[in-house]
Known about the structure:
By secondary structure, the chain is of the alpha/beta class. The protein is 37% helix and 26% strand. Strand 2, helix 3 (47-52) and strand 3 (60-61) form a beta-alpha-beta unit. The longest helix is centred in the first third of the chain and has 17 residues, at 105-121. It binds L-homoserine. Residues 159-161, 196, 201, 300-301 line the site of L-homoserine.
Amino acid sequence: MKKVGVAILGLGVVGGGTYKILDEHREFYKKIHNVDIVVESVLELRKERALALGIAENKIASNIAEICSNPEVDIVVEVIGGVEPAKTFVLAALNAGKSVVTSNKELFCKYSHELEKAAKKNNCGLFYEASCVGGVPVIRALLDNLQGNKILSMMGIINGTTNYILTKMSNGGASYDEVLKEAQKLGYAEANPTADVEGFDAAYKLSILSSMSFHTKIPFSKVYREGITDISAEDIQYGKQLGYALKLLAIGKNSDSGIEVRVHPTFVKLSHPLASVNDSYNAVYVTGDSVEDVMLYGRGAGALPTGSAIVGDIIYCATHNNFNYSTFKNTENADPSVKFVTNFESAYYIRFDAQDKAGVLSKVSSVLSKHDISVAQVIQEDGKKNGAVPLILVTHLTRENNVKKAVDEINANGGFAKVASVIRVVS
Ligand code: HSE
């Protein structure tokens, strides 16, 4: 029986989960896949962590060079996260002829061009299913099963931390700060939550997923990004009244006008399948020209779900002799011929603090109409707060720049209304 040796770099939550799955399923994989997958080495500074997982002391390496020169290691699993030292270690492994499986979205998003070049040069595999949406098998679906399609669009809830926070804000009416603190206490949000709550994590993943979907490099710098830190419980409640759930949505579209890629808080119509993706769950909703709509749903993080994606890649690597690389020229920057759409089309939720006087609604409408923005829904609430009443509008489809111009004009125009928040809407 073929034996395949694995080294795991980093025994944090995901590394530990990966080890556990491999260890517990070893006999099962032998029976099913006719391959004996053995963890030959681990790189982990906290030796006690490795020992607690049941890893023999002689399998704990003290540096990457030991792993690269170990002839028993065929596949290196990188689950350290962040750019360095992960990048140096992955390049060293590839240059030593080891295939690599990584869960590192930031590394893959920013440096896949370098990693892939090293993998090709050394005839190694480079696998990254776990880098996007944890246990949800979206990468393989895009790389294999959906290849018969031109992918027209994808929309995803691809960050569990923010989905957890928004769900709790929606259910309990608590503020962002209160829910963040609770999420940190429960271990759902990191002590430094910036990467998640400011949308970086989702933007790394969208850069990877949209590059693969649209067969061209979409660098991180092309992804428009807004996080959830300014979201108020008030807007979530008004959104609910209007029939929407608030999500941090990652959106990629490819049309004759060009490619648009953006991550921002979005009101999603309650009838849309993404509206019922709650708590820390993730989902990706892909539209292809042949298949129409497909939604993949599941756990985007966690020891065993992410471990499941990593082990799937290990088994694929262990049972295939030829490796596939990007379908496009994987360069650092975007192909200069690709047009990126920034003045995109969307519907908008706009909340105003308005003066409670005759004619205010008509003044607001007249600015909107001047910028070709047509209104679909309105809520005008009773009850003054700081001398103003809330006025909430949802527009029909319009353009981003039209909304920016209208907002600037209303805010500059004599105080009949001030724009308190603007949130894009998907029906
Ligand atoms: N921090 C990520 C999330 C998980 O909250 O979804 C790993 O990508």
